[in-house]
Amino acid sequence: MSDVVNLRLARKAKARVTAEATASANRAAFGRTKAEKSTAATETARTDRVLDGARREE
């Protein structure tokens, strides 16, 4: 036979795991300095320009 599982504790443990995943994503997105954000924006803009320049006309 299997062990008895307290569903309340299992539900709370699952919620804790999902909250940690959300917090990790938020730390990656919002926990950057202003210099890091501007560098990422500059790099994204440069990549977009390069891709637009390589686009073929139809």
Question: What would your notes on this structure say?
Answer:
By secondary structure, the protein is mostly helical. The chain is 76% helix and 0% strand. The chain is built from two helices and no strands. The chain starts with 6 loop residues before the first helix and ends in a 5-residue tail after the last helix.
Pick out its properties.
single chain, 58 residues, mainly alpha, 76% helix, 0% strand
Short note summarizing the structure:
The chain has 58 residues and is mainly alpha-helical. The chain has helices spanning 7-30, 34-53.
Which class best fits the helix and strand makeup?
mainly alpha
> What distance lies between the first and last C-alpha atoms, to the nearest angstrom?
67 Å
Q: What's the pLDDT, averaged over the residues? A: 91
Total of helices: 2
Outline type: elongated
Helical percent range?
over 70%
Tell me how many strands there are.
0
- Provide the succession of SSEs: HH
Percent of sequence in beta strands: under 5%
Largest sheet: none
Unreliable residue runs: none
CA radius of gyration is: 22 Å
